[in-house]
What does this fold into?
Amino acid sequence: MTDDTGAGDDTDATAQWVDARTTFQRVYDTVLGATDHVPAGTVAERAQCSETAAREALTQLVEMGVAERRDGRPATYRRNDSYLTWKRVERLATETDVETLRSKLASLTETDREFQDRFDAPEPDAVTQSSLPVDDHEAVEERWTALSEWRTVRRDVRVLRRAVDRARRNPDEAPA
It folds into this structure.
């Protein structure tokens, strides 16, 4: 008789992850998922390794710029969002041709202009809460969702601009 609950799926996936990845790779994977600062012991538990091994890997990841360390008792670690942005820029610049990047950038820039017109504001953070209707929950939710989308568009525009610049500076690394 088989277990159809799927309860073993997580255990199987974790075991495969532990078997397939080195301790350093598991700590890397774990810290990339850490949006808040966590102590080395928590990283070790999630990466299924000793705290000493996690601390050694975290030290290397901090030196590489992948992770940030906050001193204290205990010291805590989180991913470095700048590293993730850099990695995304590099991937886009080396895997996408400049014209495609420019086209995506133009489309997102137009979307940004549409949001500026819609909210009569130069950026999402310039939209005040006082301009939101207080008696219509759905309208408030819709506006917050739109503002979140606008922030995402703004972030993507910054990334695409950097990717276009990177691809133009190093045309030999761009896709053929």
Notes: Residues 61 and 132 are 43 Å apart (CA to CA). The chain has two domains: 7-79, 83-173. The chain is about 65% helix and 5% strand. The chain has a mean pLDDT of 90.
